[in-house]
Amino acid sequence: MFKEAIYHRPKDNYAYVCTNGELHIRLRTKKDDVKEVSLVHGDPYDWNGKQWQIKTTIMKKSGSDQLFDYWFASVTPPFKRLRYGFILKNDRESTCYTEKGYYPEPPVDDTAYYFCFPFLNNADIFRAPDWVKDTVWYQIFPERFANGNKNINPEEALPWGSTAPSPTNFFGGDIEGVMKRIPYLEDLGISGIYFTPIFKAYSNHKYDTIDYLEIDPQFGTKETFKELIDVCHKNGIKVMLDAVFNHSGFYFPQFQDVLMNGEHSRFKNWFHVHEFPLVTEPKPNYDTFAFTPFMPKLNTENPEVKEYLLEVGRYWVREFNIDGWRLDVANEVDHAFWREFRREVKAIKSDLYILGEIWHDSMPWLRGDQFDAVMNYPFTTNILNLFGRQTITSKEFVENMTNVIHMYPANVNEVSFNLVGSHDTPRILTECGNDIDRVKQVFALLLSFIGTPCIYYGDEIGLTGAQDPGCRKCMEWDENKQNRDLFEHIQKLIRLRRENPLLSNEGKISFISPEYHEKCLAFVKSNGKSSIIVVLNTCSEKVEYTIPFDFKGKTVKSLWNDEEISLTDEDLTIQIQGNGFAILKF
């Protein structure tokens, strides 16, 4: 047995409590090495004489990636405390794995050998807002979505969509434009809007904030924004704003004061200045986002800076009743600040959604004391590599996604912000080589997977575009130039997700072994009473797929075709067109 590959820790994604009082426990072993795992567990104070009383629960294999198998068990400790270990078996040996090492048999003379979950404290349970799990987001880049009031256009604004987007051009998108298009968003079926920054800034992207407490004049007024919030809420649409607390813009008044007054500026400690006077070339002598001199990094450990930014967070929740904060470059801000930020904004609105922009393993931010979720870019990368760039197989996709799912607790995965494109990435249609069928598969997967999905504006009607700034072109409002077939495809998927909770976040998800069919990707979502299987054919030829379940006595329905499938025997074989998919409920 390869003991060096066996891993567990009694915290984070390996041992965590769910809201119903269940304790979820995971174990990692070398792939294909261990054949059976049992959880040995008991209350640390439950003794019969000199012998500790233990129970055994069989663990299920919850998935495999390239290197490891993952095992899972759920227990509900009656007194909310647990000591536990693992019995592992293969064809060669059996061993008991504990915090203190390996033993031939489970020790019963002392609980100190075992892993410890001291108490299932209610305050320690990860809780994200319930509404997020059922939300379908729509990301809007305000400058490029819709122009509703030409009177507030920037002076240099160009006619809508008249030329390709650049880092410096403007087209006049604004809040009134969004408000006028709410019926369009309702028709699509979305239930949440994520706005990139709307605060006063110099650029067209607004990630270089000048005033965090004012809306940029080219977008409208606070009164208009309040009206938009009211309209959205009346139509069941949540609103999330984007904040940049890692850095300010070059024209942020406090930074301008430091430029002007140097070491005599009262704001010099608001930033990370290496020396005076400040210089921007050849490299800035102050910390910035990347090496961009126009985005000086804020010192969030400074009490004045901290209070300023915390009030920004409180203000837009308190005064405008927004539903979420998306936090830019969140991993470069100190954890202490985010803990305080969460306390402050949640005190005003307890079900506010806090989303961090982090592109890597984010467990340190997802322990219930900082963020509710992060942008799930590992999910994005795997989808793009399979359906877009076609650089991985369905087997590799399953292995990669199994690893991603096991990076976090299940209740974290339920609200993970899943996306296939954004203002920072090429358009999904461009990534898929303008192949609409592959794009349809991407959205079939996105809108049936666990997590809260997000659609980047215009992807639903087939906008194209390379990396920024190409992905930030003006929304196309001429229906004759929209791909209405793609729109209706995504609209239908959203409706099916809303009508079938299993397509959202009800139940558990598991992949069917990729060894079963090399061309198809398949996963099952089940709540113990009913199940949904999603099968995607990743090749361009028609394939037959025999679903590996016993259907005796069951009714099978194709959700996509809205028809029952008649069964002639216990097996079910379906035909899937090239780059097609099936969604079956049974």
What's the quick description here?
The protein is α+β, with helices and mostly antiparallel strands. It is built from twelve helices and 30 strands.
Q: How does this structure look, described?
A:
With 586 residues, this protein is of the alpha+beta class. It is built from 12 helices and 30 strands. The strands form 7 sheets. It has an 8-stranded parallel β-sheet. The longest helix has 18 residues, at 303-320. The model has no long low-confidence stretch (mean pLDDT 96).
Question: What is the strand and helix layout of this fold?
Answer:
Blueprint: E1 15-17, E2 23-30, E3 36-42, E4 47-48, E5 51-52, E6 55-58, E7 60-64, E8 68-75, E9 82-89, E10 94-98, E11 101-103, E12 115-117, E13 137-140, H1 175-180, H2 182-188, E14 192-195, E15 199-201, E16 209-215, H3 222-234, E17 238-243, H4 253-261, H5 303-320, E18 324-327, H6 335-348, E19 353-356, E20 373-374, H7 377-388, H8 394-405, H9 410-413, E21 417-419, H10 428-431, H11 436-446, E22 452-456, H12 484-499, E23 508-511, E24 520-526, E25 531-537, E26 543-547, E27 556-558, E28 563-565, E29 572-576, E30 581-585
Parallel strand pairs: 13-14, 13-22, 14-17, 17-18, 18-19, 19-20, 21-22
Antiparallel strand pairs: 1-2, 2-8, 3-6, 3-9, 4-5, 7-8, 9-10, 9-12, 10-11, 15-16, 23-24, 24-25, 25-30, 26-29, 27-28, 27-30
